[in-house]
Specification:
heterodimer, A: mainly alpha, 3 domains, B: alpha/beta, Rossmann fold, 2 domains, 5-stranded parallel beta sheet, 17 helices, globular
């Protein structure tokens, strides 16, 4: 039943592969058909893991870790057993690379081992995620030049892309680099290392955890804590609400327009852009909240991924608030190693552009994502230039930092980011078509649902942001008595369920 | 330093715990357990409330439930009059307008006129007709006469015409379980779905609940309120406004219907399930002491011409066989109404429904002179 919530749980290639899976994994798939946290099957799975986990006596911490590793493996294997073995295999290799780096004293050899680890991880990532894109682009290029490529174009739908591959690849790379730089010691315990990569709350769509943060947590004794449980439940419910009541509902507005912009009028296209901006935020941050909540319930704290990004006053701030685990990863492992902002203006701009293009490519193997990265790189460069220009002009700076000036900056940043989201899709031609309709008057159909409900939801998101930003929420929250808070949670859950459209969709970030 | 501070939970945006201070952390820690307890209790209570609301027929299946609440009122207003429940499809829903019969009936106190009520559901074939009758009996109604619409196209059940596919799963109620077991090919799965929806009604029946309070929040293709929002007090659903006469709009409607029904007639057969449903509906009504009749509602002359000779013969023989086997009278009203009052070949316009029902009332009174038994 809960799968009626999901329009596209299993892509065709994976569905075909499932037919040839061993009986046990087919049975597993029938029980847990999709790795989505807000489905009945997952909640039953989690309840079983949760109950077993806290039943295991505290004096057997390794048994708890084994349980989580086995549960995480099954969580992945239920969707695709062979890819679960692949992920486990590469994790095992990363563990061995780490142990080798820990054992080797000579830096040159350590460097070679680190490179081998990175090459293996990037190799797997490129093979699964970018092979189709690059081979098809090569095919088109050679054909245009009049050469016979000697192979057929690959059907993207027939390609297997292990879900979450971009997330755990980055985790593994950061581990290798950190061990090489001796920021952290190589992990000696295999189960702990397996848990670091495979831990099911963050396996599919992050947050991208760092070994230094996570592995230390595996060593801490885990005691049941009601405050932590409450925070976990609260985060999970908030994630469910964001996903079901807002993101999936916003999809009703924006998906038809993005799929076929030609049918819709200019005003409708602008509303669809607004709806998509709200949708992608609530979809991804909703998932992250759920992941954080589940991890808290098991006694782990994952990296926070969002900090109200749409109230950023500039693009640079946006990237400090949006997908924080990725932006800090890119900063630490790409931007700074490239030289960061130490090499003068042009070198900084070059590093920013390279980092953002890589960020775009990380999201998906398509020109839309790459151009999205380019657009954000340009915005960052532009912002840096503008900031430098403003510095010797204190009056202008004061105006910009006043309340109206800040409101205007927030609006402009939101507008720029929202327009960039148009590119954030595999089909670049659709994105260009949508741009054309945004900036030229065009008559067409209205939104499929009344605009009022879009404004109500967008207004609700804005009001929540303002409430938290102003600090009022902290004051209210501290004074809420338990019955009001508990009933509030229940109302939040029921409202989310009630508002969830029947046409529910998968998480946008699962494809990455 | 308290545990709350150590976990750095304060940094979580929009779920921020109070700013880390020993003074505030203590009450927060103390209330965590009761908060979760209250959450559990409130969630269960709200779920139960959603269950109670969604189990009401007016919410779960408003097209049926709202008719039945009107029927309850009409029965209360007209004590002693024999209830004639008319079951059928959209043809009946738009074609039988008991309010017109009420205005025109002789109202002889010595011989109470039949109390016609339209209990049709859009898309009904024999199985849905039986569903309505089973529900009506479960709701305590005891009609003296049950009039069952007979329409050949809806007895065909191949390809896209399977009747059980037309029954939206989320309108099914617990009272329908026997019907599901008797007629649905995947009954076990549907019952599992029903069980699950009943366990989490706030989610399982969300669209039925939401459409009651915020119809415009439901996607157009999922909205069902158009099937019940303009019912009159007698269960009649007015047809869309339509210019009377042999207009180009009417011709276009007929052309569309021809496109739909010609392929059906080409492969026409009476489904065994449809035949069984008719027989079991008649038996059900009789078991409750009601008289039963079949009624064949008007069709335009153009639409009648669409029936190939073979289909016409098969349908006629089937109806005659049912009538003969079950001893049920047939009200053949197929040619009662002029073509200009029929919208698309088989749906009556509003004036057409008025004229038709003024004729149907006396015909029912004549056909079923005594109440409470077979004619």
């Amino acid at each position: 039943m809960p799968l009626t919530l999901l329009a596209n749980a299993l892509p065709p290639a994976e569905a075909a592969a499932l037919q040839s899976a061993p009986q046990y994994f087919q049975w597993l798939h029938s029980w847990l058909p999709a790795p989505f946290f807000h489905t009945q099957a997952f909640l039953i799975f989690f309840a079983a893991v949760f109950a077993l986990y806290w039943t295991i006596p505290r004096r057997w911490p390794m048994l708890r870790i084994y349980l989580l590793v086995v549960a995480s493996f099954h969580f992945y294997a239920a969707w695709s057993y062979d890819l679960a073995f692949l992920v486990t295999g590469t994790t095992l290799a990363d563990y061995l690379f780490g142990r080798a780096m820990g054992a080797i004293k000579r830096d040159r050899w350590r460097f070679a081992v680190m490179l081998a680890s990175i090459a293996m991880n990037l190799g797997v990532l490129c093979y699964f995620k970018y092979r189709g894109f690059f081979l098809n682009e090569l095919f088109d290029g050679l054909t245009r030049l009049g050469y016979d490529p000697g192979y057929q174009k690959l059907n993207p739908l027939a390609l297997f892309i292990p879900f979450g591959i971009s997330f755990y690849t980055f985790e593994a790379i950061s581990y290798a680099v950190d061990v090489y730089k001796r920021k952290i010691p190589a992990e000696k315990s295999l189960p702990r290392f397996l848990l670091f990569i495979l831990f099911f709350p963050h396996l599919v769509a992050g947050p991208i955890v760092r070994a230094g943060d996570f592995l230390t947590q595996t060593r801490r004794p885990k005691r049941w804590n009601w405050v932590r449980a409450q925070v976990g439940v609260q985060l999970f419910l908030m994630g469910v609400f964001k996903k079901l009541a807002i993101a999936d509902r916003m999809a009703l507005f924006c998906d038809p327009v993005i799929a076929d912009p030609d049918k819709y009028g200019t005003g409708t296209c602008w509303l669809a852009v607004l709806a998509y901006a709200v949708r992608i935020y609530c979809d991804f941050s909703g998932y992250s909240d759920m992941a954080l909540g589940l991890a808290h319930l098991l006694g782990y704290k994952l990296t926070n991924n969002f900090a109200m990004p749409y109230i950023s006053a500039n693009v640079s701030e946006f990237w400090r608030r949006w997908h924080i685990s990725l932006s800090t990863w890119l900063r630490d492992y790409v931007f700074i190693p490239l030289g960061g902002s130490r090499g003068g203006r042009w070198a900084t701009h070059r590093n920013l552009m390279l980092t953002m293009v890589l960020g775009g490519l990380w999201h998906g193997a398509a020109w839309g994502y790459i151009l999205w990265g380019v657009a954000h790189g340009l915005l960052l460069v532009l912002h840096k230039q503008f900031k430098d220009w403003c510095e010797p002009r204190p009056r202008l700076t004061a105006v910009l930092e006043s309340y109206p000036g800040t409101a205007a900056r927030v609006f402009v940043t939101f507008l720029a980011v929202s327009l960039c989201w148009v590119l954030f899709q595999p089909d670049l031609s659709k994105a260009l078509e949508l741009y054309k309709h945004l900036f030229s008057l065009h008559r067409g159909l209205p939104l499929p649902l009344p605009n009022k409900s879009l404004w109500v939801l967008a207004g609700f998101v804005l009001a929540c942001h303002l409430l938290v930003r102003s600090g009022a929420w902290d004051r209210i929250y501290a004074r809420l008595p338990a019955p009001v808070l508990g009933t509030g949670y229940a109302v939040c859950l029921c409202t989310a369920m009630l508002l969830a459209p029947d046409t529910g969709t998968t998480f946008i970030y699962f494809q990455f | 330093m308290t545990r709350t501070v150590r976990l750095r939970l304060t940094w979580l945006p929009s779920t921020t715990l109070p700013r880390a201070s020993v003074a505030r952390a203590a009450p927060v820690r103390r209330r965590a357990r009761p908060t979760l307890l209250w959450f559990g209790v409130a969630a269960l209570a709200l779920n139960a409330l959603a269950g109670a609301v969604s189990s009401d027929a007016r919410v779960r299946d408003p097209e049926y439930g709202r008719r039945m609440s009107r029927l309850r009122d009409r029965v209360a207003e007209n004590p002693g009059r024999p209830l004639v429940l008319v079951l059928g499809s959209s043809r009946t829903a738009m074609g039988v307008r008991p309010g017109e019969w009420e205005a025109a009936r002789p109202a002889d106190p010595a011989r109470p006129d039949p109390l016609l009520f339209n209990a049709a559901l859009l898309g009904s074939g024999p199985i849905m007709e039986q569903m309505v009758l089973r529900r009506a009996y479960a709701d305590g109604f005891r009609p003296a006469v049950v009039l069952i619409e007979y329409w050949p196209p809806f007895l065909h059940s191949d390809g896209g015409w399977v009747e059980t596919h037309r029954i939206a799963r989320d309108r099914l109620m617990d009272v329908d379980r026997p019907l599901v077991r008797d007629y649905f090919p995947d009954a076990a799965r549907i019952e599992r779905e029903m069980d699950w929806k009943n366990r989490v009604p706030a989610f399982g029946h969300r669209e039925r609940l939401l459409v009651q309070v915020a119809q415009r929040w439901v996607p157009p293709e999922k909205r069902s309120d158009w099937t019940w929002d303009d019912l009159d007090g007698w269960g009649w659903k007015p047809a869309p406004e339509f210019e009377p006469g042999l207009t180009p709009a009417r011709a276009a409607c007929h052309a569309r219907c021809a496109d739909i029904y010609n392929p059906l007639f080409a492969a026409y057969r009476v489904a065994p399930a449809a035949d069984r449903a008719f027989r079991e509906t008649v038996a059900l009504a009789r078991a409750h002491g009601a008289a039963v009749g079949f009624v064949y509602l008007p069709e335009s002359s153009e639409f009648r011409k669409l029936y190939p000779e073979r289909v016409e013969r098969v349908a006629r023989e089937h109806l005659a066989g049912l009538s003969r086997d079950l001893g049920v009278p047939v009200l053949d009203t197929r040619g009662w109404i002029d073509d200009g009052l029929i919208m698309d070949g088989f749906h009556l316009t509003r004036p057409g429904a008025a004229e038709y029902t003024r004729k149907l009332g006396p015909a029912v009174a004549r056909t079923f002179p005594t109440t409470g038994g077979a004619p």
